[in-house]
Amino acid sequence: MSDILARLGDQIDSRRQSNATESYTASLFARGEDAILQKVGEEAVEFILAAKGDDSADLVAEAADVWFHMLVLMSAKGLGPADILNELQRREGVSGHAEKAARVSD
């Protein structure tokens, strides 16, 4: 599964310098970080609304939109899927309560 995320991250990175009129991803980068943040927020709201419904295909599609736009934002910050996967791996097997307490005390 991480292979598709790595490929998508690479594709997003490569589209940064593409023509914004030809690439949706390039157009997001061209509009700047605030526009990307707004898009992540919009997609998150659409995901939440889909979760309130009964259409699992819609929920999956909206989750994919959130992930994609989140990866665009991460790329804009110089980060990628590996950074997220490494953090999830670090948290694996750690109690959610313990992990949250460790973040609060940092």
Low-confidence stretches: none
Report the structural category. Answer: mainly alpha
State which percent range the strand residues make up.
Answer: under 5%
Number of structural domains: 1
User: How many angstroms does the end-to-end distance come to?
Assistant: 32 Å
| Largest β sheet strand count, sense and barrel closure | none
Superfamily at the CATH H level? MazG-like
Based on Cα principal axes, name the global outline: globular
Report helical residue fraction.
over 70%
Give the CATH class.
Answer: Mainly Alpha
Separate helix tally = 6
Q: Estimate the mean pLDDT confidence.
A: 94
Number of strands: 0
Task: Write a brief caption for the model.
This protein has 106 residues and is an all-alpha fold. The protein has a single domain (2-105), classed as Helix Hairpins (Orthogonal Bundle), CATH 1.10.287. Helices cover 79% and strands 0% of the residues.
